[in-house]
C-alpha cells in the first residue's frame, strides 16, 4: 500500500519543553487513522508538524513522499492544497456567509467568479448533508453540528487527498457525534481521501478507524487495529480504555 504520511523518529521541543519524543508511524492511502491519548499527550502537535505549521526539532515528516522540512514556502503551499484541515471549533469566519467560508480558498487565491465559487460551495455542502438553504447564512445562525459540517465542507473544497480532523465530535451531543462519524467514513468512500483523526471520543475512534495510535506524554504506546487495541496487554492502554469508557466492547457493539 502507498503511504500518504510517513513520520520517522520525530522529536519536538518548544521553549525547552519536550512535546514529542521519537514518534514514528505510517498512514496508508485511503485509511482512517486515529490518534488518541490524554490531554497534552501531543496529538494535535503531530498534525501541526504534518502540515508544516511547526518544524520538528529532529526527525522526518513526509507527506505523499515529500519531506515537509525540505520544501520551500512555494512548494509547501502547493502541497497544502492537497491537505484539508478540520479545526476543533470549526474556526469559521464569523463575518463571512457559509458559501464564502466554504469557498474561502478560491475567493482569496483565484480569479474564479463568485457565482462559480458559490456553485462549488454548494457541491461540497451537499457532500456533508447540507443544501442551498444555508448558503447565505452566517456561522452564528448555525447549530454546532452544522458549523462542523461547514468546516468539513471548507476542508474538502480543494479536493484534498489528505483530510485531518482535530476533535471532530468535540462539544457535540452523542447523536450529532455519530452523524459526524458517519460523514467521515462516507467522505473517505466518496472521495478516496486519507483521513487522520485526533480524538478524545473513544466510541468514535473505535467506530471509524482502520488503525489507531495511542499516545502518552508525547510518546507512542501502541499502534494497531481497533481489535488489537481492545485486546492490548499493555497496562496503560487497558487503563486508558477502562477509564475512558468502562465496558467499551458493549458500547462498540451498540455503536
TrEMBL record:
Entry keyword annotation includes Nucleotide-binding: yes
Q: Sorted alphabetically, which PROSITE patterns does this protein's record hold?
A: ABC_TRANSPORTER_1, ABC_TRANSPORTER_2
Q: Which UniProt keywords apply?
A: ATP-binding, Nucleotide-binding, Transport
What Gene3D superfamilies has UniProt attached to this entry?
A: P-loop containing nucleotide triphosphate hydrolases
Chain ranges of the ABC transporter domain:
5-242
- Gene Ontology MF terms: ATP binding; ATP hydrolysis activity
List the coiled-coil residues: none
Instruction: Read off the SMART domains from this record.
Output: AAA
> What's the name of the protein?
ABC transporter
Q: What is the lineage of its organism?
A: Bacteria, Pseudomonadati, Aquificota, Aquificia, Aquificales
Amino acid at each position: 500500500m502507498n503511504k500518504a504520511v510517513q513520520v520517522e523518529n520525530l522529536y519536538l521541543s518548544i521553549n525547552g519543553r519536550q512535546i514529542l519524543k521519537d514518534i514514528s508511524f505510517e498512514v496508508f492511502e485511503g485509511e482512517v487513522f486515529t490518534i488518541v491519548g490524554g490531554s497534552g499527550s501531543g496529538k494535535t502537535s503531530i498534525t501541526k508538524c504534518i502540515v508544516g505549521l511547526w518544524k520538528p526539532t529532529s526527525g522526518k515528516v513526509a507527506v505523499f513522499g515529500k519531506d515537509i522540512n525540505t520544501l520551500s514556502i512555494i512548494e509547501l503551499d502547493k502541497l497544502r492544497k492537497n491537505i484539508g484541515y478540520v479545526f476543533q471549533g470549526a474556526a469559521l469566519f464569523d463575518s463571512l456567509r457559509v458559501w464564502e467560508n466554504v469557498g474561502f480558498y478560491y475567493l482569496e487565491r483565484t480569479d474564479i467568479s463568485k457565482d462559480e465559487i458559490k456553485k462549488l460551495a454548494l457541491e461540497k455542502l451537499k457532500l456533508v448533508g447540507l443544501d442551498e438553504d444555508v448558503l447565505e447564512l452566517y456561522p452564528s445562525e448555525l447549530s454546532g453540528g452544522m458549523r462542523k459540517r461547514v468546516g468539513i465542507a471548507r476542508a474538502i473544497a480543494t479536493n484534498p487527498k489528505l483530510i485531518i480532523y482535530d476533535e471532530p465530535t468535540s462539544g457535540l451531543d452523542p447523536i450529532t457525534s455519530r452523524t459526524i462519524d458517519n460523514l467521515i467514513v462516507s467522505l473517505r468512500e466518496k472521495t478516496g481521501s486519507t483521513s487522520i483523526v485526533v480524538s478524545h471520543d473513544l466510541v468514535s475512534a473505535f467506530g471509524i478507524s482502520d488503525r489507531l495510535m495511542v499516545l502518552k506524554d508525547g510518546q507512542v504506546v501502541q499502534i494497531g487495529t481497533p481489535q488489537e487495541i481492545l485486546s492490548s496487554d499493555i497496562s496503560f492502554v487497558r487503563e486508558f480504555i477502562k477509564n475512558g469508557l468502562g465496558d467499551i466492547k458493549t458500547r462498540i457493539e451498540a455503536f
